Structures are given as structure tokens and as C-alpha cells.
Amino acid sequence: MNSLNKVRQIIESGKAVLGIELGSTRIKAVLVDQVGTVIETGGFDWENSLINGVWTYSLDEVWKGIQECYKDLSERVKEKYDVRLNKLSAMGVSAMMHGYLPFDKEGNQLAEFRTWRNTFTGQAANELTELFQYNIPERWSIAHLYHVILNKEEHVKNIDFITTLAGYVHWKLTGEKVMGVGEASGMFPIDISNKNYNKDMIEKFNSLISSNKYSWTLEEILPKVLVAGEEAGKLTEEGALLLDPTGELKAGSKLCPPEGDAGTGMVATNSIAKKTGNVSAGTSAFAMVVLEKELSKLHKQLDMVTTPTGDLVAMAHSNNCTTDINAWMEIFNQCLGVFGVKVTPGELYKNLFEKALDGDDDCGDLMSYCFYSGEHGIGLTEGCPMFLHPANSKFNLANFMRVQLYTCFGAMKLGMDILTKEENVKIDKILGHGGIFKTKGVAQNILAAAIGAPVVVMETAGDGGAWGIALLALYLDKNQENNSLEDFLNDTIFRDADAVKVEPNQNMVIGYERFIERYKSGLSIEQEAVNYLKNRV
Asked: For the Carbohydrate kinase FGGY C-terminal domain, which residue ranges apply (predicted)?
């Protein structure tokens, strides 16, 4: 049987597994076979909106995007394999972590979806960090909840359930109000000894808000926590129609626990073992390192989350990464268009990214800040993208492109430096994933220099978290042997994986350190720009 017929049989027999991830700018679907090989993908581009000072997506946009993404996948499957996609063995849903989605007892949405990108919860986050003696970042769900309590927002008294985007979509597909432990760890701190919410901190929170006399307590409105390998419900008739309004998709598929993009990124890069980590680079950038032990003290620049199996992870997160470089690439594309030159996006990115390697290791004294939104780790509540080229700098295309790539990892590096230089955490390797790594050897080398550790990029890097959640669904589907997730990934998925590993180039390491010192000293300029924008009439 040829490979085409073999895949067709997998699809027809309902053995294919689906993963869907709602990223910041793209919703992606990945269909895999029983060994995790990608059969086909689908996608839908979308963008968040800033409405009344809140970064958000409407739930109508969510379902339109999911349906268009699934439709794109289905049509590609039909075109390539001449078979209808109407039955799945298992599936999983992932999305941007954190944020705030509250609902009442009837399932009515009580407030707009407030995404991870909102940084107006500073007071709430700081007060909870002091209360718990545990870092509570501004984007965490509990910070958003306490923020609306402090603001005395009318809807709080009617809350019956709060969740994240992944948890919401999973709920509507299955009827189950559950959450994977990795995603849950971005809502509220997890006790890694029992892989559930920290009871002492829940009691402290309930005591903190007791004077409000709400009808609910925190443990009553949070999703139930599950770990990888546990079944999190089945696709209902209503859920199948939400996903595929044509009615062709049958109900009954098993679903794995919904996870955030951090957890699925770890799975997609096989970086759930201790002393390994991964960097996910897209609209935001975050580095995750699986720890051997607790850190020595509280660091507000580092988030403590977990793997999908509940192991402790330190995360250095930045809200901003590729948005600004994408904007510059569009300017270059428009410039070429003026001269009647047409290039594909792939060609544009590849050639200009590769040009960056011709630049000076310290970017020729150029500086760029890619802050479209606020950046919690450096105290920015709002952003203003900025490019600086001193009169005596080496201002050329190679250095321009290089500094745009350097700054993508700048804010994240500040957190990683705490982990490696202050806490002396040892890292054997970091696995990179996200579209920025598609041009071989460019962003990979820059990241290795930024963190001072080997960086591995796999051929699957471009499929990212959608593939990662598909693998978690496949792990659920095949977990009759009760293998650990780590063994499943090593033995079934990544045994023969193609991967490229680069060691840090010492000249580039030195150059990046010079860049980051200028980066830190220039942050006051960024703050002044934000102040200027605030004060404009």
C-alpha cells in the first residue's frame, strides 16, 4: 500500500488525531497519524483588538476563526487524499495562556475576554505576590480576577466560572470545565506535590476577599485540574457542530486536557525533561526551563509554572517579540512593490534574515525596542516601538536586520540572566520553535548567543503548539500502556527526528552582551516615549 492510500485509510477509519491552537495572530489546526506524523494543516489569520484600553478578541471571532481553520484543514485533506474528514480518534485544544473569561450560572459571558497582553493589573498582581510570597504576573487569571474585585466591577458577584481561552473552547466542545495542569499553573499557583491548586494560597485569597461576601469561593469557580494522559471529556454533538457547521464531523472523539501555548511548545520541542527548556517566539517570547529544584528566592521577573505533567518550570516571559519585525518586513515589501518587484513572504524573510548574519556582532551601535504593548519585566505599562541609530553608528541593512532580531529576545534575556547568572541553573539545551526559526541558522544562532546555551531546532518547529496539542491528544489515545509522557515523546515521536543543534558563537555572545547593556541603559528612553504618547493632546 502506497503512503497516500495508507494515510487515506487512517483518515477514513477515524484514527487521525487533531490539534487546534489559537495563537495571537493565527489559529492553526494540525492533523496527525498514530505516530505523530503531520497529515495536513489548516489555518486562519486573526488579530486582537484594543477596545476601550483592553486587548481582546470577541467570542464570535473565536468561533469564526476556529470554523474557518477547520474548514481550511478539511478542504486540504479532501483535495490531497480525496476523502472527507468526518471522524477523529482524539483531539486537543490549546491557546494563548492566561487572561480572563468570566461566566455566570447560565453560561453568559460577564466581561470582555481580557488577554495575556493586558498589563493594567499591576496593583492586583503586586498585592497577590506579597500575600502569597509567590510571583503573580500581571497576565495571570488570578491577577485579573483580583483586579476586577479591586475595581468593584459589577459582574464579579455573578461569577460562576472563570477560565482561559483554551479552557473556554474545550468547555464548549465537551461540556467539561477542566484545565490541563500547565495551563492551570498560569491561572493560579500549583502545588507540585499534588498537581493541583495550592490550597494554602486559595485560603489566603478567600480570606482576602471575604468582606465582599460573594456567593462563591475561589475553588468553586476555577476549572478542575488534569494532567497529561487523563481524558478530559468527549466531543459532543453540539461541540462537533461548533467545530464543523456542515455537520460532517461526528461526535464522540476523546479530548485531552486543554493546554496553553507554553505547555504545547514544550511538548512540540520534546523539552519536558529536567535541565532542558524551550523558547517559543511569536507575538510574545518566552523561555521555559524545567527545574531540578525550587529557586532560592522569589523573582518577580520569573513565572513559576509547570509542564503538562506537573513538573516545576521557570518561565522568562516577554509580551513583545516579532510584531515589530513583521511591521518592518511589510515596509520592505511595500518598497519592493513600488519598483514592481514581487517576492513571496518566505523569500523576503529568508533573504533579509540571512543578511543579518553579515552585520556586526554588536549591531554596529544600533538600538531597537519592539514594544507594541507594555512589558511587565521592565516596568512598562504601555509600549512604543522605537529604532535608534546614533550619527556615528554603522547604519546599514545588515546591522538594521541584526538589531531587529537581537531585540526580539531582549526582554526575555533579562529574565533568563536571573535564572542562569543569579540562580546558577544549568541548561543542557534549549529547543526553539516558532516561525522566526524557519530561516535556518539565523534566529537560532542569535538565541544561542543571547542565553549562552546550545539551541536545537527541529524540522517540526514551524508547526509549533498546534502539533504539540495534537501530540498530547495522541498520548491520551495511545496511553493504554501507561508510559510516561517523556518516554512516549522519546520513543514514539522524536526517536528519528531531524534536528539542527548550534553551540553559542563566542564572538556573537560577546556582541550580544554589549547590545544588552546598551538595551538596559536605553530603557529610560522607551519610558519617555511612552510618557510622551500618554501626554499628547
From this structure: 278-475
